[in-house]
Amino acid sequence: MGALLSSKVNQWTLLIGMLPVVYTISAGRFGGMEMDSRQVEELFLTAAQSLFAVAILANLSFTLGEAILIFVLFSTQLLVPDPRFRYYYSFMYIMLAVGWVLFNKGARQGLWASFLELRAPRLRKLPSEFLRH
Q1: What's the pTM?
Q2: ∠ CA 29-35-39 to the nearest 5 degrees?
């Protein structure tokens, strides 16, 4: 599980995050990175897949059923090369992620715990009367 999460974080922070930096250096000027329509489709699809993966892994467990679901979704998107289907699959991943969080108590609890963990340093700085319920 740790290797899976680590590889996804690595993909977004180092690989995707460094693309504009490397592009700017290689172009010799500051500016936006120009992408064709296929690159935009693929970036949107990857972001939607990542959102769905976060929803599935929010409870820090990965069942066989979840693995099969991800495999089926990923493999079936390869069968249709039409660009519209990349957008359809992207929106489907987003809807599945939202549905997964809405209807899966473990995912909701995991996301909430992650949110609280990220906010914990700021919450510790607040006066104690704000933290009481």
Answers
A1: 0.74
A2: 145
Q: Burial level of 69, CB count in 10 A (0-12/13-18/19+)?
A: middle
d(C-alpha 63, C-alpha 66), whole Å: 5
Rounded CA-CA distance 55/105 in Å is 11
Task: Map tokens 């493999």 to a residue.
Answer: 75
Chunked mean pLDDT (size 10), the chain, 133 residues: 65 74 87 86 90 90 92 91 92 96 91 79 56 49
Q: Are 56 and 100 in contact (CB under 8 A)?
A: yes
Encoded amino acid at 38, one letter: R
Q: How many residues does the chain have?
A: 133
Both tokens of residue 44?
């949107």
C-beta of residue 101 within 8 angstroms of C-beta of residue 57: no
- How far is residue 120's CA from residue 125's CA, in Å, rounded to a whole number? 9
